[in-house]
Amino acid sequence: MIRLREVQKSYRQGERTTVACEVTSLDIAAGEHVALIGRSGTGKTTLLHMLAGILRPDQGTLSILGQDLSTLSESDCDRFRGQHIGMVYQTFNLLQPFTALENVLLGALFGRGAGADAEERALHLLAQVGLEDRMHHLPSQLSVGQVQRVAVCRALINNPELVLMDEPLGNQDKATGGQVLDLLLQLARNNKQTVVMVTHDPESATRMQRTVDLATLRRVSS
Ligand SMILES: Nc1ncnc2c1ncn2[C@@H]1O[C@H](COP(=O)(O)OP(=O)(O)O)[C@@H](O)[C@H]1O
Ligand SMILES: [Mg+2]
After folding, report:
1. In this structure, which residues have their CB less than 5 angstroms from ion ligand 2?
2. Domain 32-59+72-210: assigned CATH number
3. What is the CA radius of gyration of the chain?
4. What are the pocket residues of ligand 1 if the criterion is a CB atom closer than 6 Å to any ligand atom?
């Protein structure tokens, strides 16, 4: 499902180049639920964005579902993501002028979930995460936990093979975040989806089948 070899991503700031993320070798099988764990600033978001095809590695090979993302143009990468990947961003990235339901439907617009039954599926997903009475609320009218649940629905609307999640417990109390994560994992199990979560929190990692410490994937452990 996922295969990385000698992947590296650096950021340049003036004269200085810092290696933000380095992965010597990582394989994740279809259907696995994996936590990638590391302290703040160790490149977790950078890695997740590379897995999603939002960022390109400077070096190395990265393939998802047998597709080497580095061979795709930017627009083909976007299309590939829409077809196969669902992403729950660290900051959720809901569009503020749109309701919960509209935000989920916007996810379908860019993926294979577009179609006559998109609204029905969006309503079903929102009901599954307990938001049946919040469909028409704006993000600003929702709690952090509710916003996150909308973001989870948006990530799942296209029934992607791969679900990526950034710091699911990062922005809220652990009990609420834990419930959302358990819900996502339950839905993913039902749909045989692969889930990759990045987190700094060893406790949330225990909910996953496998945990990989990003420090062990660097050439020189930091
Ligand atoms: N756009 C950027 N420009 C320059 N440096 C960046 C940028 N994004 C991230 N970094 C740096 O790369 C490192 C890894 O960042 P990030 O992937 O966000 O880590 P994490 O998600 O583990 O906290 C950090 O040192 C961060 O400061
Ligand atoms: Mg991060």
Report:
1. 44-45
2. 3.40.50.300
3. 17
4. 11, 13, 20, 38, 40-46
